[in-house]
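User: Show me a protein chain along with its predicted structure.
Assistant: Here is one chain, sequence first, then structure tokens.
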Amino acid sequence: VRASCLWCHLLLAHGMGLNVVAEGVETQAQLDYLRAHRCDEAQGYFFYKPMSADDLEKLLACEKPEGARQ
């Protein structure tokens, strides 16, 4: 049911000319599904866990913050 609801939301938003941001992506499978269904953006623990301001500065400076994925 969740997948069909997501697909309907994507179709509706894209039909209205809107971009879609998926929140809470935690697995490669979720990201693959979103990409296959043309979701525009995604965020969540799959990419990064919450981090300190210092670690964010490192990330933005292209340095590896603590706890980043390999």
